[in-house]
Amino acid sequence: MSGWAGIFCDRACILGEGPAAHPGLGRLYWLDILGKHLCERPFSGGATTLHDLPVMASMVARVDDATLLLGAEDGLYLRDIDSGRMRLLAALEADRPETRSNDGRVHPCGALWLGTMGREAQAGYGAIHWFFRGEVRTLFTGLTIPNAIAFAADGTHAIFADSEAGTIWRVATDPATGLPVGDRKVFVQVPASEGAPDGAVIGAEGLVWNARWGGASLDAYGPDGTRVRSIAMPARQVTCPAFIGPDADTLVVTSATEGLDPDRTDDRFAGRTFTVPVKVKGRFEPVVRVE
């Protein structure tokens, strides 16, 4: 275990999640799922702007320099960056009020994978869906807390996890569509005593960075699933990393206060968003293809 992260944003999120960089604007966007906020802050620092949301959203992706896509409790929304206006693009499990969206990432071809889960983390309620140019398909079902969705830079494989099972899987994907090809295989198994795999990103050279919920750690895994590094984090419930900076060489990690004692004397930085004190070879997520 090495390192000690600094604070990128001092605001404590109830459930900070889904960070994504917008390199064209030089900003990081992330969500406080339970607080119904979209958070925004320049890479270079300054104030964090909070945007109230009419729905509970869990992930954000860029469409272009004027538009974001939000994965939310009842579907995918387009959000105008300047005005804040939101428009439902595609319904997703709108007939299942017991579920909400969770982790999501964009494949290099522009397809989105988005997880859904039970609002009370009910066993087996989770799924992962694929969205590409207006079409929605369900890829995987029977999960509990889908997480760690990330893609190789060349689009040839994906990873995803069920946090409840402590398992990260790897599956081949079609570079042209982002659809899975063949069967998934276990990539990493995290013992319950060490926490649970949460959000993840894959860098330019294939290194997987995974936030370990309950473990106060950001872990790096090689292409064979071997843990090659663990960086200590100042909060136990770290949730998801993202690459920021002009060269995508800095990692930030969100975290959560959900379920913790309000005093949090032993976890006083919970809910903050952190910078990681190592230089990395990251990459920016591609734009999502909506049409």
Architecture overview:
- It is a single chain.
- The chain has 291 residues and is an all-beta fold.
- It has strands spanning 6-9, 16-22, 27-32, 37-42, 49-52, 57-62, 67-72, 75-80, 86-91, 99-106, 112-118, 126-132, 135-143, 146-151, 157-162, 167-173, 180-189, 196-202, 208-213, 217-221, 227-232, 238-244, 250-255, 273-275.
- Strands 1-24-23-22 form a 4-stranded antiparallel beta sheet, with no helix packed on it. A 4-stranded antiparallel beta sheet has the order 2-3-4-5, with no helix packed on it.
- The model has no long low-confidence stretch (mean pLDDT 96).
- Residues 15-257 form the SMP-30/Gluconolactonase/LRE-like region domain.
- Pfam families: SGL.
- Belongs to the SMP-30/CGR1 family.
- This is SMP-30/gluconolactonase/LRE family protein.
Write the layout of secondary structure elements.
Blueprint: E1 6-9, E2 16-22, E3 27-32, E4 37-42, E5 49-52, E6 57-62, E7 67-72, E8 75-80, E9 86-91, E10 99-106, E11 112-118, E12 126-132, E13 135-143, E14 146-151, E15 157-162, E16 167-173, E17 180-189, E18 196-202, E19 208-213, E20 217-221, E21 227-232, E22 238-244, E23 250-255, E24 273-275
Antiparallel strand pairs: 1-24, 2-3, 3-4, 4-5, 6-7, 7-8, 8-9, 10-11, 11-12, 12-13, 14-15, 15-16, 16-17, 18-19, 19-20, 20-21, 22-23, 23-24
